[in-house]
UniProtKB/TrEMBL annotation:
One of its GO terms (cellular component) is membrane. It is a multi-pass membrane protein. Belongs to the SLC26A/SulP transporter (TC 2.A.53) family. It is found in: Membrane. PANTHER family: SULFATE TRANSPORTER. This is SLC26A6 isoform 3. PROSITE patterns: SLC26A, STAS. It comes from Pongo abelii. The chain crosses the membrane at residues 109-136, 183-211, 264-283, 344-368, 380-399, 411-431, 443-460, 475-506. SUPFAM superfamilies: SpoIIaa-like. Keywords: Coiled coil, Membrane, Transmembrane, Transmembrane helix.
Length: 740
């Protein structure tokens, strides 16, 4: 019975219906689909637009998420300000902000003079950059604004370029100040561009090349530069402008030459202000536990000096220079002078790196102390935007101040809300109260600057501490200090960085080389010269370097290895070659002599030397003797056969655990070590190589038929164990390698 009969007529009909339906679908979708009219097309378009809409919605959502993440990354205030604990932090930030503003006011006025600018521009630089950093910065405690080191670097640039901009003619004070403001603001824009660019490409690691001794030596020298630059205000002298190398020496000599022209009123004013500031600082240090906030000695001195100057008429009666007119209100934004970019690019990069180095070092100190993280790349962007936007509003380059940062932390500051409050206080002074300081003596500002240098000048004691701790760091400190004093701040920093990097290279060229011995009953190997319990393994030398081997020290590594092994490897190799060459020459002469005798003897000798009948036993004995001589022939080239001294070890193990990379010079040096020691019948092994180093050895085609991975061991103890079990060269490797 067939399948249809078994299924029944109903099942057969259902099967046919399903087949017809499938055929209709096939025709409808592939073969016989009719043309669609406009209504059908519009209907299909409406149905097909739904997936595309969802795709666009998904893309927009992803783009918004990326933009939001990017915004939160580069605008940290949106992250922490909504979570700001008002009850816990606001009071501390208010007190801290007011305390910092009280310091910011006199320092802003004073550091503007240090930069060679009118004092009001110091107030601008204490407002715009501080508020911008409040939005973009990641450190909660550093106080951004004017700083002595940055100001003196700016001053060296403005004093050198401003007269050139006016053709070195006799200029009045207003034109000179306008030119210097343009130079300083353009410099700030360029510094900001450098810092933002470096931050966006994640170049924050650049400050790792500025070591702590370098930074401390540099800031100490900068403090000396600041001190000398303020002498003209302390003594009331008019000095000529000096720039470039040895400018500090020329300034000191000119001050000494013009000391008889000092104005008594100015000297007395500076001395009294300095004494008052020192006394107040001593009181603050002594009463630190009892006082809720430090006594604002600088602000009190500023107010008192201004009142005394106005009441006694110091300018007219005693010829004391005063600040002069301080315009009220903010200045409109001004585009930078792009024609100055080519003249400022070198100084701008130096100022950008120095300013960031100071800010990030202080920021990391406070971050570790209070348990939060500072993003170095975002700090670059924040400082860069502060200088960039500040430069557009005629500010000069800024960084963070050590003294103000310490005050901001010690007075209860918990976030950059304190910085925002201080900037708003400075804004109030700019708009309403700035003109009250018209009669402020410049000598008082100079006294404020000099007294605030106390902390940096104390770093001169580093010489004594570094002499005891680390002579190499002391050398970096001294070279940095001397170069900055003699060559000025920009060239001094370049010389300091180059010298510190060269010193690193020199120190890697002269690492500590040691022969290792085994601590009894352990797998530990230590320097036999330092550890009395460590003993050399008989027949095995283990050699280690404390630094990686590369092109600068590869030759020193090979020389130290041959010296520490106690064997004159080069002498043995040269003597062996001479003896073998001499032996070959003797053999050659003997053969030539025999040939000559044969020619002279002629037929008679040939007849006498005719072959005689030899028994089979004699032939066998001759063949055996010849075979023994052939087998003994290679032994004639050994050190013992040549009468040369043999090394007291049969294996050399190179502990390469200190290697972090290998270059082509290192590869050739290692191959030459294998060749030279095999020439004196010593097998060489390598131990403790890191995986990246092994990969680089493979990429450099170091391993071949003569140097295989059988010569490579995971640890020194594994290599020693193998060498003791195999005192002869490994069977599958030839005795010598071609020297490179």
């Amino acid at each position: 019975m067939g399948l249809a009969d078994a299924s029944g007529p109903r099942d057969t009909q259902a099967l046919l219906s399903a087949t017809q339906a499938m055929e209709l679908r096939r025709r409808d979708y592939h073969m016989e689909r009719p043309l669609l009219n406009q209504e059908h097309l519009e209907e299909l378009g409406r149905w097909g637009s739904a997936p595309r809409t969802r795709q666009w919605q998904t893309w927009l959502q992803c783009s918004r998420a990326r933009a939001r993440a990017l915004l939160l990354q580069h605008l940290p205030v949106l992250v922490w300000l909504p979570r700001y604990p008002v009850r816990d932090w606001l009071v501390g930030d208010l007190l801290s902000g007011l305390s910092v503003a009280i310091m910011q006011l006199p320092q802003g006025l004073a550091y503007a003079l240090l930069a060679g600018l009118p004092p009001v521009f110091g107030l601008y630089s204490s407002f715009y950059p501080v508020f911008i950093y409040f939005l973009f910065g990641t450190s909660r405690h550093i106080s951004v604004g004017t700083f002595a080191v940055m100001s003196v670097m700016v001053g060296s640039v403005t004093e050198s370029l401003a007269p050139q901009a006016l053709n070195d003619s006799m200029i009045n004070e207003t034109a000179r100040d306008a030119a210097r403001v343009q130079v300083a603001s353009t410099l700030s824009v360029l510094v900001g561009l450098f810092q933002v660019g470096l931050g966006l490409i994640h170049f924050g690691f650049v400050v790792t090349y500025l070591s702590e001794p370098l930074v401390r030596g540099y800031t100490t020298a900068a403090a000396v530069q600041v001190f000398v630059s303020q002498l003209k205000y302390v003594f009331g002298l008019h000095l000529s402008s000096h720039s470039g190398p040895l400018s500090l020496i020329y300034t000191v000599l000119e001050v000494c030459r013009k000391l008889p022209q000092s104005k008594v009123g100015t000297v007395v004013t500076a001395a009294v202000a300095g004494v008052v500031l020192v006394v107040v600082k001593l009181l603050n240090d002594k009463l630190q536990q009892q006082l809720p906030i430090p006594i604002p000695g600088e602000l009190l001195t500023l107010i008192g000096a201004t009142g005394i100057s106005y009441g006694m008429g110091l300018k007219h009666r005693f010829e004391v220079d005063v600040v002069g007119n301080i315009p009220a209100g903010l200045v409109p934004p001004v585009a930078p002078n792009t024609q100055l970019f080519s003249k400022l690019v070198g100084s701008a990069f130096t100022i950008a790196v120095v300013g960031f180095a100071i800010a990030i070092s202080l920021g990391k100190i406070f971050a570790l102390r209070h348990g939060y993280r500072v993003d170095s790349n975002q700090e670059l962007v924040a400082l860069g935007l502060s200088n960039l936007i500040g430069g557009i509003f005629q500010c000069f380059p800024v960084s963070c101040s050590m003294s103000r940062s310490l005050v901001q932390e010690s007075t209860g500051g918990n976030s950059q809300v304190a910085g925002a409050i201080s900037s708003l206080f400075i804004l109030l002074i700019i708009v309403k109260l700035g003109e009250l300081f018209h009669d402020l003596p410049k000598a008082v500002l100079a006294a404020i600057i000099i007294v605030n240098l106390k902390g940096m000048l104390r770093q001169l004691s580093d010489v004594r501490s570094l002499w005891k701790a680390n002579r190499a760091d002391l050398l970096i400190w001294l070279v940095t200090f001397t170069a900055t004093i003699l060559l000025n701040l920009d060239l001094g920093l370049v010389v300091a960085v180059i010298f510190s990097l060269l010193l690193v290279v020199v120190r890697t060229q002269m690492p500590h080389y040691s022969v290792l011995g085994q601590v009894p009953d352990t797998d530990i190997y230590r320097d036999v010269a330092e550890y009395s319990e460590a003993k050399e393994v008989p027949g095995v030398k283990v050699f280690r370097s404390s630094a990686t081997v590369y092109f600068a020290n590869a030759e020193f590594y090979s020389d130290a290895l041959k010296q520490r092994c106690g064997v004159d490897v080069d002498f043995l190799i040269s003597q062996k070659k001479k003896l073998l060459k001499k032996r070959e020459q003797l053999k050659l002469k003997q053969l030539q002599k025999e040939e000559k005798l044969q020619k002279q003897a002629g037929p008679l000798l040939s007849a006498c030397l005719a072959p005689q009948q030899v028994s089979p036993g004699d032939k066998m004995e001759d063949a055996t003797a010849n075979g023994q001589e052939d087998s003994k022939a290679p032994d004639g080239s050994t050190l013992k056969a040549l009468g040369l001294p043999q090394p007291d070890f049969h294996s050399l193990i190179l502990d390469l655990g200190a290697l972090s990379f290998v270059d082509t010079v290192c590869l050739k040096s290692l191959k030459n070590i294998f060749h030279d020691f095999r020439e004196i019948e010593v097998e060489v092994y390598m131990a403790a190589c890191q995986s990246p180093v092994v990969s680089q050895l493979e990429a450099g085609h170091f391993f071949d038929a003569s140097i295989t991975k059988k010569h490579l061991f995971a640890s020194v103890h594994d290599a020693v164990t193998f060498a003791l079990q195999h005192p002869r060269p490994v069977p599958d490797s030839p005795v010598s390698v071609t020297r490179l």
